[in-house]
Design a protein that fits this description.
Elements: E1 2-8, H1 12-23, E2 28-32, H2 39-44, H3 46-64, H4 80-104, E3 108-111, E4 113-118, E5 121-125, E6 131-141, E7 145-147, E8 160-161, H5 163-166, E9 175-179, H6 183-194, E10 198-202, H7 214-225, E11 229-232, E12 236-243, E13 246-252, E14 258-263, E15 265-268, E16 272-274, H8 281-284, E17 307-309, H9 320-334, E18 348-350, E19 355-360, H10 363-369, E20 373-379, H11 384-389, E21 395-401, E22 407-414, H12 417-429, H13 434-438, H14 449-458
Length: 466
């Protein structure tokens, strides 16, 4: 078979790239080594984790806030098996949707491991070992990433687990030790903390969600402590041992003091690394950068002309929506268009409760740049809508240029901020000032009024409701 474009990997970056290529008239194939489409995000990442987060949040509210709302329940209990089954159904429905999109757009789905024979030839190896080759004019590598393991913490997938196993638990942990205070650990830790588990987070850095504005990590720490989290920062994990149903984790703090932590499960969530094994990159002359990611230029083209790479295998944040934008960009470039991506304005989200969302520069980055800025902040406890829903933790923080008033960064922690951040992205894409947002009408009562109020606060300290 001869294709105009072949995409290796069917995650959000890969399948979106394939669809856009097909829309633009290219004969397109997509290669996926697993029997289901959707990659990590759909099958063992974004989608299943959000399904469990929603289910566990329902339970937590029923147990802790329904009575205040005037709703009284008896004999409330968790049916974890049903919770996991619902998660599987959500994953299947979403996967079936991608299969439909492939058929609708006349994209050939080839199942097996794709590897380069040469620049324009790809071999596909099926599970049974059989192989076939296809010819392609252009190739887009979208093979994603996999969890990073620590040499001192051997993962057995039973008691010492990754995010994949945490999505298929058969019991609620009594005490889950989470190694890593980033997005994955805090989201999955939240699931089981809400269901009654004690959660201990061991973090090498001095705060949570280290890549985001420090004020967000501090506020999130306060909120998670309310549901049973405890935190140990500046701790380096030195060993892990499983004895029967017990996991013993040893960690050392900055002073050299060694502490032993005991639980029944340990979730290793220390980040992810690009998945490039078995691609045969050397056969096509594709080079890696110093971090082991595929090196690309500004057009996302690799060292070999005609071969592109997107998503987690290249530089930048490992986010599904970043991969989607890159997939679209490559497809449109191949069609002769002139698309662009402003990487500064790709938002980051943590789906804990309260949710955390941010876009643009952090306050720490602006300080490092020596840029003159001003800050406007508004707490959700001053929001009528948040009080009505009993979601008063958190705030919206706006950073604006001190001279021009242009919005430089927006950092939110609170109810539905994962959705609210989109307004900030739109504002910043059009280089809006804080006063521009402050003068736009926001429906009352809504959570988004808090963004307007934060912008008012940044504009000559004009917030109305604080």
């Amino acid at each position: 078979m001869q294709y105009d474009v072949t995409v290796i990997g069917s995650g959000p970056g890969g399948y979106v790239a394939a669809i856009r290529c097909a829309q633009l008239g290219m004969k397109t194939a997509i290669i996926e080594k697993y029997p289901v489409l959707g990659g990590t995000c759909l099958n063992v990442g974004c989608i299943p984790s959000k399904a469990l987060l929603d289910s566990s949040e329902h339970y937590h509210n029923a147990a802790h806030t329904f009575k205040t709302h005037g709703i009284e329940l008896k004999d409330l209990k968790v049916n974890l098996a049903q919770m996991i089954q619902r998660k599987r159904e959500v994953v299947k429905q979403t996967g079936d949707g991608i299969v439909y999109l492939m058929k609708k757009n006349k994209i050939d789905v080839l199942t097996g491991v794709g590897s380069f024979v040469d620049k324009n030839t790809i071999k596909i190896t099926a599970v049974d070992g059989s192989t076939k080759e296809i010819k392609t004019n252009k190739t887009i590598i979208a093979t994603g990433s996999k969890p990073i393991s620590l040499p001192t913490v051997p993962i057995d997938k039973k008691r010492i687990i990754t995010s994949t196993e945490a999505l298929e638990m058969t019991e609620i942990p009594k005490h889950m030790i989470v190694i890593g205070g980033g997005v994955i650990g805090l989201e999955l830790g939240s699931v089981y903390a809400r269901l009654g588990a004690k959660v201990t987070v061991l973090e090498f850095m001095d705060g949570l969600i280290a890549s985001m504005d420090k004020s967000l990590g501090k506020e999130l720490q306060k909120s998670l402590a309310k549901i049973g989290f405890e935190f140990f920062f500046n701790h380096k994990v030195t060993s892990a041992l499983v004895k029967g149903n017990e996991v013993i984790i040893t960690a050392e703090d900055k002073s050299g003091k060694v502490t032993e932590f005991k639980g029944d499960y340990c979730l290793v969530s220390t980040g992810r690394k690009p998945y490039t094994e078995g691609l045969g990159l050397e056969n096509a002359g594709v080079k890696l950068d110093e971090r082991g990611k595929i090196a690309v230029n500004d057009h996302l083209e690799t060292s070999t002309p005609g071969i592109y790479a997107i998503g987690d295998v290249i530089k930048g944040a490992m986010l599904a929506h970043k991969a989607e934008e890159e997939g679209t960009l490559v497809a449109e470039q191949l069609a002769g268009q002139k698309p662009h991506i402003n990487y500064l304005l790709i938002p980051g989200v943590v789906y804990t409760w309260p949710e955390v969302a941010a876009v643009g520069y952090t306050e720490e980055q602006l300080k490092e740049q020596g840029r003159a800025y001003k800050v406007g902040s508004f707490p959700f406890k001053a929001s009528g809508r948040a009080r009505a829903s009993m979601d008063i933790d958190g705030f919206v923080k706006v950073l604006a240029d001190k001279t021009t008033d242009e919005i430089l960064g927006v950092h939110m922690i609170g109810p539905r901020t994962a959705d609210m951040i989109a307004e900030a992205v739109v504002a910043m894409e059009f280089r809006a000032s804080a006063e521009d947002i402050a003068r736009m009408s926001h429906a009352h009562p809504t959570y988004t009024e808090s963004f307007k109020e934060a912008c008012l606060a940044a504009t000559e300290n004009r917030a109305i409701h604080i």
